[in-house]
Structures are given as C-alpha cells and as structure tokens.
C-alpha cells in the first residue's frame, strides 16, 4: 500500500514527490509514462524560472529534479496510468500494462496539451518560431512583428500582451466574430498595433534552419492568400487537459471538473474527493507556468501528508 501515488512527472509531479517523501510519507511512487520533466522539456529556452539566469533549455532546467526527489526516497515507475478510482478508503491506480497499485492518497499532475491548429509547418517549426506560450516566448520577439492564431479569450488576451512587446501583432481568426469576452474584443480593437485578419486561416508557416520567416494566410471568403513576414507565430486555439485518468468505467468522473475538463481544487489543491489532490496545468485557473506547477505540487503534497496522518495514522 502506497502512502501516496503521484500521476505525472512534470514540474508539479516531481515537486509533489520531493515534498511528500521529504515530509515523511513512505512508499511514494510517481507514475510517469515517459522520462520525468514534463512539457517544458520541449522548450528551447526558459527565462522565467526564478534564480535561473543563464541561457538554458527546458531539458537543462528539469534534468536535476528527479535526482533530488529520488534522494529522499521517491520511486519512479515508468508506466502510463489508465485509471484512478476509489474503493472505500483506498485508491486504486490501474496501469495500462494491466498492473494495479493501492494508495492512501493520490496527487494527479498529468498536465495539459495546447491544441494544434493543424496547418502546414506547425509541427516542424514548433519551438523554433511557432509557440503556444506568449509569457514564455513573447520576449524573444521584442521589437518584431508576430502573428497570433485564434479568436477566444486566450488568443485575444495574449495578443494584447504581445502588443506591448512587439511592434505589430497580426491577429488571424477564422471567422469575423470573436469568441472572447466583449470587453477584451474592444480592447483589442482599440490597440493600434494589433491588425485583425478575419475570415482567415493559417495555411503554411515557413522558414529556414534558423526558424520561422513567415506565415501564409488564406481568406476563406475570397480565397486570397496573404504572406505575413513574421518570425513568430503564436497558436491559441484551445487547450486539452490530460484528465482521462479520472474517468471511471461507467463514464462518470472521480471528482468535480469544470466545463473545460479542468479539475476543480481549493487552495490546498484538494479535489472534491477526500484524499485526491490535483496540481499544475490540470487544475482550474492554472497560470500554466513551471513555477506555478511546482508550487502546486508542494501545496498538494503538504496537504496529502496531513490527510494520510489524519486518516491512517490515528
Ligand atoms: P506537464 O509538464 O504537462 O507534465 C505532465 C506529465 O504527466 C507529463 O510528463 C506526461 O508525460 C505525464 N502524464 C500525462 N498523463 C499521464 C498518464 N496517464 N500516466 C503517466 N504519466 C502521464 N512555462 C514557463 O514557466 N516558462 C516557459 O518558458 C515555458 N515555456 C513553454 C514552452 C513550451 C513549448 C511549452 C509546451 C510549455 C511551456 N511552459 C512554460 C509551460 C510549462 O511547461 C507548463 O506550465 C508546466 O510544464 C506544467 O507542469 P505540469 O507538471 O502541470 O504538467
Ligand atoms: P476557446 O475559447 O476554445 O477558443 C479557441 C479559438 O480558436 C476559437 O476562436 C476557435 O475559433 C479557434 N480555433 C479552434 N481551432 C482552430 C483551428 N484549427 N484553426 C484556427 N482557429 C481555431 O479557447 P481559449 O481561448 O483557450 O479559452 C478556453 C476557455 O478558457 C474559454 O472558456 C475561455 O472563455 C476561458 N478563458 C477565460 C479567460 C478569462 O476569463 N479572462 C482567459 C482565457 C481563457 P471559433 O471561434 O471559430 O470556434
């Protein structure tokens, strides 16, 4: 019986593992289907993790984290979790390979995946000019022009953010009506260096060995194609959280989720089910930053320790 099972080994899961083991929980296993580190390992540069001042990649940032956790007894099981369920006081962790584990508490840290829009070159140039994170990568385009794809709150808010850093932002949206809140739309329309390119879809992002040099955009009404000479393309067409492990056999969810499928938590990272915690990009209102995910992981672990103490060590 594990004191705590951690599902996902990104910044949230690894930090939860560090705090859970160092805080005295026994038999803590982090189930991570790949190498630990999470989605930040795809990033070629990270500049906004506190205390990190050199030019380092996401991989460089995450490389020492597992070693630090293992020192305090965290075990890494390289396996995909297919389902977390609860039987009485005990959680059952079912793995895709058919094995099962039992745990007194669970911290789910399975993260999220930004959706891809699906245009030519998007995957090829991802991380080399195509980005899904303005807070992370916007600064690299200071004083340059960029394109933003999408018409929801995220796209418009990020366009406003980028407009403060970049000389011009082309906001490319496939319809002539935005999904974003009216006030956000108004702010965008009133921002002089945001140019709206409506009824238009990205057709192809192109570039060279150094990265992106431009984006071809097609007008869906008249079929005309325009070339935008931009070194950066930001895609904000929605986000999928990795919540599948919480889906039960009968189709219900193990705990409360919001309309976007994000896990509802309180400030202790407790979900609606006792003993089950969620941390990082998976939770409601996640700022989707490494430092925030790590903070969530620590918070969840501290409260998992208190839960196990109270319920099992009476
Ligand atoms: P994740 O990092 O998504 O980790 C979740 C982990 O769970 C993954 O390793 C996954 O393999 C594992 N997992 C999922 N499902 C299962 C399962 N069923 N079984 C087992 N394992 C599973 N943030 C910044 O602060 N600064 C930046 O500069 C920055 N740049 C970014 C650049 C890019 C290209 C991307 C994609 C993101 C960037 N971010 C940045 C955001 C940052 O990476 C995330 O906010 C952060 O990684 C979230 O951490 P997490 O632990 O919640 O989830
Ligand atoms: P979203 O609301 O789903 O919007 C996605 C946008 O991308 C839509 O405009 C959609 O176009 C477009 N799109 C989808 N697939 C596309 C494709 N393949 N190619 C081109 N365009 C594509 O996603 P979001 O903006 O990330 O927001 C998610 C949720 O979080 C929403 O409920 C939002 O309100 C909320 N949110 C709230 C705030 C806030 O309250 N301040 C901030 C951010 C997010 P269509 O419009 O044509 O479908």
SSE diagram, text form:
Blueprint: E1 2-7, H1 11-22, E2 28-31, H2 58-62, H3 65-71, E3 75-77, E4 81-87, E5 90-95, E6 100-108, E7 112-114, E8 130-131, H4 134-137, E9 145-149, H5 153-163, E10 168-172, H6 182-189, E11 194-197, E12 200-208, E13 211-219, E14 225-228, E15 232-235, E16 239-241, E17 276-278, H7 290-312
Parallel strand pairs: 1-2, 1-6, 2-3, 6-17, 8-15, 9-10, 9-15, 10-11
Antiparallel strand pairs: 4-5, 5-6, 7-16, 12-13, 13-14
Helix pairs in contact: 1-3, 1-7, 5-6
The protein binds flavin-adenine dinucleotide and NADP nicotinamide-adenine-dinucleotide phosphate.
Question: How would you describe what is shown here?
Answer:
With 314 residues, the protein is α/β, with parallel strands linked by helices. The protein has two domains: 2-114 and 239-312, FAD/NAD(P)-binding domain (3-Layer(bba) Sandwich), CATH 3.50.50; 130-235, FAD/NAD(P)-binding domain, CATH 3.50.50. Helix content is 22%, strand content 27%. The protein is built from seven helices and 17 strands. The protein has helices at residues 11-22, 58-62, 65-71, 134-137, 153-163, 182-189, 290-312, and strands spanning 2-7, 28-31, 75-77, 81-87, 90-95, 100-108, 112-114, 130-131, 145-149, 168-172, 194-197, 200-208, 211-219, 225-228, 232-235, 239-241, 276-278. Strands 1, 2, 3, 4, 5, 6 and 17 form a seven-stranded mixed beta sheet that branches. Strand 5 (90-95) and strand 6 (100-108) form a beta hairpin. It is elongated and about 70 Å long. The chain starts with a strand and ends with a helix. The model has no long low-confidence stretch (mean pLDDT 96). Bound molecules: flavin-adenine dinucleotide (FAD) and NADP nicotinamide-adenine-dinucleotide phosphate. Residues 117-118, 149-155, 157, 174-175, 179, 201, 236-239, 260 line the site of NADP nicotinamide-adenine-dinucleotide phosphate (NAP). NADP nicotinamide-adenine-dinucleotide phosphate binds next to helix 5.
